[in-house]
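Hi V.,

You were right to ask for the full record rather than a summary. Here it is.
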Amino acid sequence: MTRYVFKMPDLGEGTVAAEIVACYIKPGDAVTEEQLILEVMTEKASVEIPSPVSGRVISIAGEPGTSVPVGADLIVFETGEGQAAAAQAPAAASVQIEQAAQKQTSAAPTPERKQAGSEGSTRIMASPATRRRAREAAIELSAVPGSGPGGRIQRGDLDNFLAQRGTNTAGPAAANAPQVSSTALTGADIEEIPVIGLRRVIAQRMAETMRTVPHFSYVEEIDVTELEALRQHLNAKQEKGTPALTYLPFLALALARVLPKFPQCNAHHDAARNVIVRHRALHLGIATQTPDGLKVPVVRNVEQRSLTDVATEIRRVSEAARTNKAKRDELSGSTLTLTSLGKLGGIASTPIINAPEVSIIGVNKAVDRPMVHRGSVVVRRMMNVSGSFDHRFVDGHDAASMIQALKECLEHPALIFAGL
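Predicted structure:
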């Protein structure tokens, strides 16, 4: 028998360490070559790692949440193929991992996995969140019918399966479940959730932004009655089955219209060079809630797009982010971010800037309210817009002026499309 030590691979782009975010094996397990064994995350990508050899797992460097330096011992295997087979393994594994890394999205786990253990090489398609819930409920995903494209197991598929089984999805993992559970109950009324993977990255970036960026917020009330009438009119003319227009594409085009007058709001702060980089193009980040946490896919060159094109692209990149199909360049490079909680938008918000940007616009819910309009009390459709700005580089007057210009466009939507 031969022991083979598999070291943390170099995942490129200056990576010095990677965090274990999921472990599909445990000491004593028998594995086959190319079987999925780990998922690791760097600051820029999440990568699935296949086993470089067939054999038995002797030890693992850590559990989910452990950061392992590149080149450090990761897993020790016991193999029966001798030194020759073991010597060939690193090259094959490196090629597989490099190919996997190139396919991964920025800080986004892949939606497709080979299930470890008894399923061997069977391809089971499901999101990391769905896999996690299945593991915690001790459910083999191979038993769950998938209704998504290519048989992909959706969240609803697992919910239906668990309902039929009468399984409590909130309980701890069964004793024989894989060593990957993200929750551990320490008492009847206490649940501990390790902050790892994408959630850890989000937490670190949010905390760093709040420490280093002096935010200030500006909230304005906007009468969107005319915009709502236009939106309803355009939706009525859409072909049956076409997704309805929301407020977001109108807001995106309105921002593209007003930002050339306020270039300091469509900018990045390059802290390393102490430079403000102003952008002529609007690459709009769309804050998107996903099962894995908040992601910001990007709609590029909004100023060059039509209303329908912007609406279609917002839907496309948001769905790609939610299903972990967004490419790396679709999750970076925004110059200003638009965030909305839709019907949960509340009265006002104070969104946190998506550094290195210097501005973020938050959309609150639209409601009908009695307002004084042209001397009479009438019902108008009202919506608040909340902007947060980096006060080091955006003065209060400039931020307020930009929001007022945005307000004018949204209250008189013809201005969005007129070349004035």
